[in-house]
Design brief:
This protein is of the alpha+beta class. It contains 13 helices and twelve strands.
Length: about 350
């Protein structure tokens, strides 16, 4: 690991001021020389691999006094960005009213990692693409813009089949983000000009021609929280992986339904493990609304979710697997006892 300096922020303003010093010299395609440190479960890992090389870390854990809440008020949910994954996953009211959130967090990592990792850091985690994480491969447009993508013709079993471009097919690895995008969550971002709120669906950027730009988060800004309107007790997260513990998804689905007398009034479907960004399957949702779920409808919705999927040499199996996961998640959500 390369040498770096360490600073512990006493409050949000101190953290933002420290990050802003580096922001002025940072362009969208360059990595900020100063990085925030919360749980560190991704950042420290990438620093050890020499993928990320910050010159200074700003410890933002003291901000948890203001940014770690789990509030259910008036039928809505607010989550602080520095709440730990285990804290939210184990919250009784989250489990009752937003099981898709609790399940996505429980299935995301080992207990030790969930105790350390924060919600804000989790949605910012970077791809697990082996070509991105191994600096001996020069070709990685995400790590070295303009160098090419070694995964295109390399071993791409874990790579994306949705949202890809000619520049990048790396998969977004997170689980929690699928629950957020399915529930139309909002994300609060705090910078030197104060907080701003936007749809979480607009936060991550598909690779396009600039894979190195992964989110709309500007240098010097921090995620401060998330908000979800309404409650979704009929919601599930289904994750299929190579092994049952501490593994990333081959395919996953976050499903939330509003069901009245067996009729689906509203449906939310998001996909994980198969796309370059957290993926909302609106085509699948359109098939479901106003209908009663049966095996045929579940299959049609699943087919619609993957209608634009593009498989490659080693990952084409994800399309068939993803369809099965979506259909299973839908039937599981309908069968829930609320």
């Amino acid at each position: 690991m390369r040498s770096f300096s360490y600073q512990r922020a006493s409050d949000p303003q101190a953290a933002l001021q420290a990050l802003a010093l580096a922001a002025a010299a940072t362009t969208p395609l360059t990595e900020a020389s100063t990085q925030p440190l919360a749980g560190g479960t991704t950042l420290i890992d990438l620093m050890k691999l020499d993928v990320m090389r910050p010159e200074r870390l700003v410890d933002i854990n003291p901000l948890a006094a203001n940014w770690s809440q789990v509030d259910l008020d008036g039928g809505n949910l607010k989550l602080g960005a520095l709440a730990h994954m285990s804290q939210v996953a184990g919250h009784a009211e989250v489990q009752q009213h937003y099981p898709v959130i609790a399940d996505s967090l429980k299935l995301a990592a080992s207990p030790q990692l969930r105790n350390m990792a924060t919600l804000g850091g989790n949605v910012l985690q970077r791809t697990r693409c082996s070509y991105f994480r191994d600096v001996s491969y020069a070709e990685c447009n995400k790590r070295n813009p303009g160098s090419g993508c070694a995964a295109m013709d390399g071993f791409n079993r874990m790579h994306a089949v949705l949202g890809t471009s000619d520049q990048c097919i790396a998969t977004y690895p997170g689980d929690f983000a699928q629950a957020l995008i399915a529930l139309d969550a909002a994300i609060e971002i705090t910078g030197k000009s104060g907080p701003r709120t936007m749809s979480f669906a607009e936060f991550h950027k598909a690779p396009g021609d600039t894979p190195a730009i992964e989110t709309v988060l500007a240098p010097g800004e921090l995620i401060s929280g998330f908000a979800i309107n309404g409650r979704w007790p009929r919601s599930v997260y289904v994750k299929v992986r190579d092994r049952q513990s501490y593994e990333f998804a081959l395919a996953s689905a976050a499903v939330a339904l509003d069901l009245q007398d067996g009729v689906i009034n509203d449906a939310r479907v998001a996909l994980g493990g198969v796309a370059t960004v957290p993926w909302r399957a609106r085509e699948a949702e359109a098939f479901l609304k106003g209908q009663k779920l049966d095996d045929t409808l579940a299959q049609h919705a699943a087919d619609a979710a993957f209608a634009d999927a593009r498989g490659r040499q080693h990952n084409a199996f994800k399309i068939a697997l993803g369809r099965r996961v979506v259909a299973h998640a839908l039937k599981k959500a309908v069968a829930m006892e609320i």
